[in-house]
Amino acid sequence: GAVVSQHPSWVICKSGTSVKIECRSLDFQATTMFWYRQFPKQSLMLMATSNEGSKATYEQGVEKDKFLINHASLTLSTLTVTSAHPEDSSFYICSARGRRGRIYEQYFGPGTRLTVT
Amino acid sequence: GENVEQHPSTLSVQEGDSAVIKCTYSDSASNYFPWYKQELGKRPQLIIDIRSNVGEKKDQRIAVTLNKTAKHFSLHITETQPEDSAVYFCAASNILTGGGNKLTFGTGTQLKVEL
Description:
The structure holds two protein chains of two kinds. Chain A is mainly β. Chain A has no helices and eleven strands. In chain B, the strands form two sheets. In chain B, strands 2, 4, 5, 9, 10 and 11 form a six-stranded mixed β-sheet that branches. Classes of the chains: A mainly beta, B mainly beta. The interface between A and B is medium-sized, with 22 and 20 residues.
């Protein structure tokens, strides 16, 4: 399968600071990137969808000014959690979708564990 | 929007037995149904998927069935092994050529295979 990487794999930050998470598709062009959040023992909840070169579409209840998403290239999307608070502590997972041959496929990154103290 | 329900939330089976996880979806436009296995702290891994033009798909010990009329699909794992222990998620989406593929996930099933 295709490779999607995320950086950092884990991060601890103080309340009020901002954290940037990178998601890269390493061997295919990701026309669409999805960002998910997963709280302990819960399902993956879609936060936003971004297409390369355009603004992200946020799911209901997700603050676009707090979770800044940039999808500047076909291989890189970033999620910035601004003014992080303890309730933002979660597992953030990106998913990259792109065309491989005739088929569109989607692959998940390894996730980023964010802990806000 | 799409809503996916998944049952059971936890499932314990003896090694060698079969495990069945069921999901229902609400949007009749959904046409793609993947199943993911997620181990603690790791990314979801696609284990099998099915599209709406088929009713059943099998890959070794894993099979998925789809009933479009009833809007439900199921994961079947036969001859379970301890390494099958994980959280399993079903998902549903509407694949659009050239477009997004927003997955709606079920709530997950914690499968425990006991020796």
